[in-house]
Amino acid sequence: MSSPPMDDRDGVIWYNGDLVPWRDARFHVLTHSMHYGNGVFEGERVYGGKVFKLTEHSARLHRSANMLAYELPYSVEELDAATRRVVAENKLEAGYVRPVAWRGAEVIGVSAKGTKVHVAIAAFPWGAYYDQKAIRLVTSRWKRPSPESSPAGSKAAGLYIICTLAKDEALAAGAQDALMHDYKGRLSEATGANLFLLIDGELHTPTTETILNGITRLTVMDLARKRGVKVVEREIWPDELARATEVFLTGTAVEVQPVGAIDGREYPVGPVTRQLKDDYAALVRM
Ligand code: PMP
Fold it and tell me: For labelling alongside 173, which of 90, 109, 121, 274 has CA 20 to 30 A away?
């Protein structure tokens, strides 16, 4: 069953301080961010009517905008309150929240000087990200850029052109997602999630140079340490995939997602992945 289009639903969206009917949350075609990619956004999950790590997400939205040299007109506390309000108004018990900020239609030039900053927050039901218990990844030809070419730590709309190209090519190849290398050829991340490999009983994950430093990534690193599993952040090269005995992804949407295969190589869903998946599921519902 296909779900209704995102712009044609019942409910309300928080839009610059007000709750507006879902279908009325619109902007002009000459909106600066629509042309130059400088919108920033978040993805949050609701469990039992509450957003997991809400303040961390609101704070990251601020940092994402700051990395693109603008300020949001609402404080972290105001964004937290607005999010709680829109989740409650839509009576959302379980689902997803999409805050987005962008620069308005006051000017058309590349410079964003003089634009107004807008913020909206939508909340809606959303189930599992993948249908499969263990997903198949294929290596993408698209590379994560150098931090000298883009602010990797910003959840900036423009950076997702790489993710959308990589993801759609992976789907066309019969996989569920893409594994991206970075500009140096090191393992980086999937199109909406961070990567972990179990090597010799230790959990290895790429450094934050070219990835979005996921809130789930940090949470799962903590959970692993609590279980006595050593966590190593370092540069990881593709040939090391041969030594990994378990592979999984982390992200707000994907949670802890076992990876069953990368290109031709298969991985079992092992005990460390299963433990961390259970620990994460328990934590988000606490
Ligand atoms: N990398 C990318 C490219 C993402 O889009 C996401 C999802 N926000 C992540 C990693 C995981 O981040 P988080 O755990 O904060 O959801």
Answer: 274
Q: What pLDDT is stored for residue 149 in this prediction?
A: 95
Q: Examine domains 12-124 and 135-284 and report if their fold is the same.
A: no
Pocket flag, ligand 1, residue 189 (CB < 6 Å): yes
User: 135-284 has which fold?
Assistant: D-amino Acid Aminotransferase; Chain A, domain 2 (3.20.10)
Closest-CA residue, ligand 1 atom 6, reads 192
Q: Which of 155, 167, 179, 280 has most ligand 1 atoms within 8 Å of CB, for mutation?
A: 155
CA of 70 to the centre of ligand 1 (A): 21
What was the pLDDT predicted at 3?
83
What residues does 256 pair with on adjacent strands? 250
Span 12-124 CATH architecture: 2-Layer Sandwich (3.30)
At residue 286, the pLDDT reads 84
Nearest CA to ligand 1 atom 2: 192
Residue ranges of the chain with per-residue pLDDT less than 50: none
